[in-house]
Amino acid sequence: xxxxxLAHGIGLLSLLAAAWIRCGPLPDGLLxxxxxxxxxxxxxxxxxxxxxxxxxxxxxxxxxxxRLPEMLVEATLAAxxxxxxxxPGVDPLAVLRALWHDLKAGRMAEGGSTLTQQTAKLLIxxxxxxxxxLRETVLALRxxxxxxKREILALYLSLAPYGNQRVGAEAASRGYFGCGAASLTPAQxxxxxxxxxxxxxxxxxxxxxxxxxxxxxxxxxMAEEGYLDADxxxxxxxxxxxxxxxxxxxxxxxxxxxxxxxxxxxxxxRVETTLDTALQAEVRGILEMHRDRLRDHGxxxxxxxxxxxxxxEWLAWEGSGDYFDADHGGAIDGVxxxxxxxxxxxxxxxxxAFERGxxxxxVLPDLPSHxxxxxxxxxxxxxxxxxxxxxxxxxxxxxxxxENVPAVWTLSQVGVPGLLRLLRQAGLTxxxxxxxxxxxxxxxxxxxxRLDELVAGYAALARxxxxxxPTMIRALVRPDGMRIEMPSSEPQRILSDRAAFWVxxxxxxxxxxxxxxGVGGSLDFxxxxxxxxxxxxxxxxxxxxxxxxxxxxxxxxxxxxxxELRNSSGVTGAAPIFHDVLLAAQRRVMGRWPGPDDPPxxxxxxxxxxxxxxxxxxxxxxxxxxxVETEWLPTDRPLSSCRWHRHRQGRVVVSWPPRYRAWARExxxxxxxxxxxxxxxxxxxxPRAAEAAGxxxxxxxxxxxATYLRDPTLRDAFQTLPLRAIARSRARLAWxxxxxxxxxxxxxxxxxxxxxxxxxxxxxxxxxxxxxEAEIMVK
Length: 779
Known about the structure:
By secondary structure, the protein is of the alpha+beta class.
């Protein structure tokens, strides 16, 4: 082999070795470092809510290469690698200079590593040996081959240690100065740029003076490199740095916990949520303002949820009012804790009735009533909140005033299975029992639901009957920087726009609810708001929910240990909070409150028109009706004229239907002339025809299948059952128990019967032999 050939071979091998060093493969997964990334949770505008520790027990944030703050880049280059953009990853001049300085000092005083080499060291965490140094050098050359200079800078600024569990310049900037790296002043940028050299020795909290001396050295280097002129240098040296010592941000604890629990491990680098931090702060302030009032009622917990109707995004989420109140379960999230909602479920009962042919003008019986239950012999006898029965009551005031008896009667007409199906379609997942289990008390809230799901159900009413699953997350950012938009749920129609409009229109009718709630209270607003309160059994929970076109707000007040409240209902407990939160949410979303030129809360469908109706009968008003209301009614359904009001002997009287005569008698509103006219056969009609025109009497009390319990502490004289029936005829009715006569009375009048243990058949008969009967049990 000639020398030329040997030289060529050595040259070729050298080129191959250089090519391998420069272009060889990187270790698998070198550039994907999820274990070094902490998870940052931010609100809808990027405001930090929480930052978890990474697997390395650090807080870190990555800076993208296309958004590197120039001031920070210049400070870092001045401090670490002035020739960064000139060398291929290793700087021979810097190595020679460091070697010379080390020889002069007689120790390792300078390393000579480039930023690329330091980045390689951060990626592989090499041992401090010659072999480790060689590996670092090879990786630096290969990084320069595969990545651009700004990409390498981004890696370094994202992985460099800045002390106090902060990795990366962005995390350090927020941790030490409370601002993002893009907002750093030259003095702050130089301060940070000096820390990675010795982050423990230069700990700003423990050795601020040393860190400040390093900063002044970096500023001088920046001036030497032309990054700062004389005036800028003077201002930077004169700037007084103030470090923040606040703990890591953790806002909306319950919300953040809910978000993170919904994500699989490992968590992404960044979670962009739907929360509005400014509104969340207002909600916290409102709850704090009401805290003393709540404590007066014996309430220590309060939950608030605010939903954006159009996007289905949660804007505010407060689970207890005080996350750190360990004495009262503050860490429990009341937004997702099932509790009894009371009357807050009634709107869905009426929505179902509106789908089945009822209208807000339909008259409902607000009378003493009994309804069967799943338990043999046990009946459900609802009463209104104030103990008053109001007789015939139109659906509008019945729902607006939250009357109990009409709601239960309405449910008895449309069926519990139908209501249960509608509530599940609206998103209430806790109603997992059968219709027989809940019975007619379902409309009274005798079941446990979650506040967030009930808010979503009300939002479906605000959207005209369209339900959609709410979301907490807008986007995720993976460790590799890829941003993934989270898809929105598709709306599903659960109600017709007609039924949803009627419910929204009634719930926003402050005049219709004034007879119960008064005026000027927490449910009244300077713009249209549909609102509903709810109070659970034994006053353990109270609620207020409602919506505008833009937002739906739900509030729960109670105790997590289910301790009863004192003199507190949905109106007095949750409603004042609801009022303040809704005003804040509406202003936050719109930038103002709705005005007269804005669209109404709910626009009537084209098949509804305003009609004049009788306020008592709900039928088309005539000139005899003393009180007239306007109601939205279907164009495709004829409305009969009112026949309740009639002329009798030169005056207008009410011809009460049989169902309401006993109530009218008790309230002094029964006109005897009308009764006589109503019961008299038509002229020319035969007795047989008159008899045929009649109807059999109907037993009002006792209800069929009822069970009665005798009280051993009372005398027999005080343990009687009033027998009462209605009939079209005004003749006396004969009563029998087990075939033995016990008395007679006019319709609606009561016949007392002493309770006798055993099973009995109670019957009533009119003068024509028509009868009705009910079987009861006395124990």
